[in-house]
Amino acid sequence: MALVTTIGSASANSYVTQDEAETYFAARLNVSAWTTAEDNRDKALLQAARQLQNENWLGSRVDSTQAMAWPRVGVEKADSAGSDYGYGYGEQYLTTEIPQRVKDAQCELALWLLAANSQPGEANRRVTSWSADGVSATYDYQGTNRAMPSDVTALISPLTSDVRIRRG
Q: Are 77 and 92 contacting, i.e. CB atoms less than 8 angstroms apart?
């Protein structure tokens, strides 16, 4: 499936183009999962965009027919002059604008998804038992870790509500 990035479109499925992702990763360290996954890059970007759709974004969609959560109306820029965390004193994102934070988050999440798939179990590893004297640990590699990577959370947290809604 091809990336469709038309802002506000009913058929959009991504915030970033392949060229934007390439530019992003060209300036980032440790991107081997991206560079070696030529056949899966679009899939990873699409999956990342789908996962970002589940966030509890501030503001409202510009149009009820748009496929993606962004663009939005009523969302203050986190680093704008006069910003007061949602109280309307700072500059807001335009209704034709996708925040760079959202685009970067999509790239980071895509990279994380690719890295998790190239190293089975590593992203899903959790400690199931621990012994202090014998210094041993047992890991469970089953299941899927649905948690958002900390880099992605840091990027989008100024644009999301503290109230979390779980969408099935």
A: yes
Cα separation values, 148 from 78, 151, 152, Å:
20, 8, 7
Assessment of whether the complete model's pTM goes beyond 0.70: yes
Give, for 167, the enclosing helix (H) or strand (E).
Answer: none
Per-residue model confidence as pLDDT tens for the chain (168 residues): 899 999 999 999 999 999 999 999 999 999 999 999 989 999 999 999 999 999 999 999 999 999 999 999 999 998 766 555 555 567 899 999 999 999 999 999 999 999 986 544 444 455 556 666 666 656 554 444 456 899 999 999 999 987 555 554
d(CA 33, CA 38): 9
Which two structure tokens, joined as six digits, stand for 104? 């970067």
What residues have CB less than 8 Å from 164, skipping those under 6 apart? 56
Measuring CA to CA, which residue among 38, 50, 34, 68 is closest to residue 146?
50
Q: Where are the alpha helices (DSSP H) in 27-149?
A: 32-35, 41-52, 100-118
